[in-house]
Structures are given as C-alpha cells and as structure tokens.
Amino acid sequence: EGWDRNINDSTFCMVNPDYYHMISRTNGASAADVTIWFDDLLDNVYQEMAHWQTVPRWENMGVVTTVMNPSPILSSATSSGWGNYSFPPFILGSPAPPLALTVASTSICSTDTLTFNATPGFTNYEFFNNSVSIQNGTSDTLILTGLSSGDTIEVTGTDVNCNAYSNKLVITVTTQPVAAIAGTDTICEGTSTALTASGGTTFLWNTTEITASIVVSPIADSSYTVIVSNGACADTATFNVTVNPLPIANITGGGVTICDGIAVNLNGDPGDSYLWTPTAEITQNIVVSPSVTTTYTLTVTNSCGTDIATTDITVLTAAQAGPDFELCKNLDPLGYLDTAAAFPAGGTWSSPDPLVDPNLNPDGFIDHISIPWGNGYQIVYTAGGCTDTMLLDVTGAKTGNDTVICPSGAFFLSVAQPPGGTWSYLDPTTGIQTTTNIIDPITGEIDKGDLSGDITFVYTSQGCPDTMVVTLCGENDIWVPNVFSPNGDFWNDIVRVRGEAVDYVTIVIYDRWGELIFDGNSTEAAMNTGWDGTKKGKELAPQVFVYYLKGAFLDGEEFVKQGNITLVK
After folding, report:
1. If DSSP states are collapsed to H, E and C, what string results for 26-44?
2. Does residue 398 belong to any structural domain of this protein?
3. For residue 172, what is the enclosing H or E element?
4. pTM of the model
5. Are 453 and 532 members of one domain?
6. Below-50 pLDDT ranges, the chain
7. Cα–Cα distance measured from residue 566 to residue 545, given in angstroms and rounded to the nearest whole number
C-alpha cells in the first residue's frame, strides 16, 4: 500500500488508522523489551519482525524492518531517541484477515471427512487443494474426504466491491490403522488361547487389558473386541472364540435288574462318536436284551478327548405262566389253572382284573363259575421277582327254559346268550348231535319237519354248550281209544287219553249202570297212567263203558268230550 516507514505517529494514524497495532508502555517504567513475531506463510513458523527495548534507549533494534507478503505488505515504523514515556512506540501491521477458513481439526485420519467453513458474507468462494480449484460458487462450505498429509486447502472470497481475500489451512493426515486379531477360534472347555492384536501402537481390549496379546480362558462361546490406535486414529476388531465341551460318557437307563427277555434302553449323552461294548454298536442310544447279567461300557469321543462309563444289568430267570387258558362255566368244574405248565415252580397267581382276582387263589385255584363270561382276562404268574401273563377266556352259554311248542311248520327257539353261538339238537333216535332240521344255526330257526315229542336243543358258544328241552306237538287234538283188550299181552292193555298240544285233561269212566269205574283227575292219570280195565284190582267182564273228559289246550282253548269205550277179551 506504499506505506512510509518514516511517517510519524500522528500522520500515520490519520492516514490509515485501521492497519497498525500500538504497543504501549506504562509511564515511568524503568525497562521494556518487546519482540514482534509474524507468521507470513501461516505455517506456524514465525519470523522476528521487530525488537523494541529501553537499553540503551527505547528504540527499534532493526531486526526486520520490512516483511514481504503477497497482500498486504507489512512494515515496521522506526522511532529513535524517545526518552519521553508519554510517546509510545508502535509497529505497523495487519489485523486478522477479513476472510477466515476453519475446520474441526487440521490433523485427521485417512478415512475422515472434513467440513471447511469460510467466513460468510462474501459473494463468491473459490476453494483450492494444492492450488487446484475444486469448488467455485456461492457456498462458503467445502466437504472433502480422502485427503493426503500436507494437502493445502485454500479459499478466496470476493466481496461486492470485487476485493479478493484469501486464507488457507495445511492438513496433516495420519494413516487409518486396520485392526486385526490372530488366535485360535475354537478351544476345548477348560483350556486357554492367546489372542494377538495388530495394526496400531496402542490397544484396549474389552477385557480392559491394554497389551497387544492377551490370554483368555472362556467357559462358553465368547466374543473379544480390541480398539487399535496409532495415536491419532483408531480401528476396532472382533474375534469369536467357540468353546467345545469335553466328552461326557454318561449312561442312563442302566443299573437295573430285569427278567430274562426284557429289553432295556441305554442312552448316552451327546458326543461326536460312540462305541458300546460288548455290542460294538456306534449309536448314541442302544436297546439290549441280555440273557445273563452283563456289564456295558460306553466310550464317547469328540474333538476334546475321550470319556468312558459303565453300567450293569442284572438278569433274573424269566417267569412262564404257560399257554392261554379256557374254562367253560357249563362243563368245567371248579379247580386249578394249568399250574404244571408254570415255570419256575412255586410262584403265585393273581389278576389285575377286579372280576377275576376275588375268585383266584394264589395257588392257582379258580372259581371260574363266579366270573362273568369274557375273553382275555389277565392271569399273572409271579416267580423269583419276574412275572408272566396268560389270558383266560371264561366261556358259557344260556338257553331259555324247557318249553312246549306246537308249530305247524318252521319256528324259532328262544334267544340264547351270549350272542354269536350256534344251535344244534340231539337226534331223538340216535342221540347224536345234528343240525338236520336247523334252518339257521345262528338265529335258531327250526324246521319242525318230522320232529315231535321231547327234543333236546343245544346252544354252543365258544365251545361251551347249554341245553333246553322243547316238547314239539301238533295242532290241537284230543281223543280216547274206543276199544281195548286188557288180556296181559302188552298190546292195547290200557286205555289212555291221547292228544296234541294238551295243557291239562281229566277223565272219568262209568259203567252202563252209572257206577264210577275210573277217576283220572289229573293229566298224569289221564294220559300216562290210564285205565287197565279193572275196578279196585278186579278184572271186569267185557262190556261198554261211558267216559267224560274235559281240559284245555296249550293255546288256552278248552274242551269237553264224551264217548264209549268197549272192553273186549
């Protein structure tokens, strides 16, 4: 600006009062020593511009009288011989530049992003990186990333009067560290591993340790984190350690006493591989049925080692109840089960069924008649600590009561129990069981055919029979022979009432003079006993007699009849 270093203070202040800094001293001070420093390149390297002191007198020592700078030019004023403290010396200079450039920090990490802010109020801002224009416009903010150490960021601001002002910052960049952890990521329970961090000069683990290497002994899967720093910058790394369990050869299901023939489940704890002896199986769980007392060994192996466990299974002689049994309530008498088939001898009998147990003695005697019909009753034989079960079928059959049936054709027998049995009958001539006249053995439909009289019908269920007698008769009929010859030859010696479907009948016989000769006052007397031609044991002479009979048929129809009987010899 063409400043004259020889102008006096009053003239200078009047000419350009904005560009000087006054250095005052206290009136009457005995000594003063002032040095002025200036950073002409804004690089924190300062040059000595002026040196003022009071010895031998207050004057500028002339270290630097002019400092050249692109804008503005700075000068120092020289005054000598000022002995009067009422006149302070001064140095010319520039105040703070009107355009400032600020950033959070000029020392950054290589991955940081910086935001540069220039003094607002200028009409245009042009930003430079190492003198290369990188942004030009009205924005007073510049955002940069990926800077290198030593990069100079400069801004030039232009005001409305086209005056240009500049400022700049030099950036120091520290390389971003890359944290890493080395070590064994899989260990066995109860062991340790060393973890070593790299990538920086200082370390901070989540265990609070601050060394590059640490030794850890986790009891479960764990994560370890370290913050690695090189002084200005830091990075974080994480390392996962998996803890594998030690093998445990534990056997469940063993240590028991069983009966021969019983299966046992032996189960091992989880592992990588298994070996059972003496079975040589290699699965985690096995099923065994030893016939003698046996020791089983399980060897479990995984990546962390081997463990062994053993267990004993004690085997007892198996009980045998014998074959399943069947008792017919209609045929079999009370007695013992098939105890001879049970093994070993000397055991006891019981039943979990409340219908059977009260009727079964421990020695095997059973009252099967008191047990309801049924299949599959459980009978338990216990011997030597072992049990076996046989099944008992209690069979039976129940027909209806004996009856009289006077059908004209086919007929049905009464319903028998239990359902599902079959009907047959005994041939009245041979006594052999037959089904000749059986239309349907299940429903009991019978073809009367030539059957008559007392027929024994048999209902059989599960091999157990029951019988009923059916008296088969024809249609309602009643008659008395009109002649007989009681001569002792066993042919036609007795006169009897004959008939079909008779419920009851009585007969009286008179001679021709009206005297009572025979009184058949019951069905038995009339139809079975009959009259033998005598009166009070005395044979009568041939003659004609009169009879009177009355009674009823099975269907309720009543009858009265009379007639003559001729006795001949």
Report:
1. CCCCCCCEEEEEECCCCCC
2. no
3. strand 172-174
4. 0.46
5. no
6. 1-22, 25, 55-96
7. 6
**Residue 340, SS3 per DSSP:** helix
Q: Please give the structure tokens belonging to residue 234.
A: 């830091």
Per residue in 285-305, pLDDT (tens digit) is: 999 999 999 999 999 999 899
Peptide bond into 278 cis (omega under 30): yes
Boundary residue ending a domain (92, 125, 150): 92
Among 270, 297, 316, identify where a domain stops.
316
What tens digit of pLDDT does each residue of 316-345 get? Answer: 999 999 999 999 998 998 888 888 889 999
Phi first, then psi: what are they for 532, rounded to 5°?
-100, 15
- Overall domain count for the chain: 7
196 and 234 assigned to the same domain: yes
Q: Is 525 helix (H, G, I), strand (E, B) or coil?
A: helix
Count CB atoms within 10 A of the CB of residue 200: 21
Separation in Å, CA 407 to CA 340, 471, 472:
52, 10, 7
Identity of the amino acid at 152: T
Query: What digits encode the pLDDT tens for the residues 479-536?
Result: 999 999 998 888 899 999 998 888 899 999 999 999 999 999 999 998 999 999 999 8
Q: What percent of the chain has pLDDT over 70?
A: 83
In the block, tokens 């683990």 appear at 205
Is 497 within a domain?
Answer: yes
Structure confidence at residue 549 (pLDDT): 96
Contact 441, 422 (CB under 8 A): yes
Residues 79 and 131 in one domain: no
Amino acid at 99: L
Q: Does 394 fall in a domain?
A: no
Q: Give the angle 272-277-282 at the CA atoms, nearest 5°.
A: 30
Domain extent at residue 240: 180-244
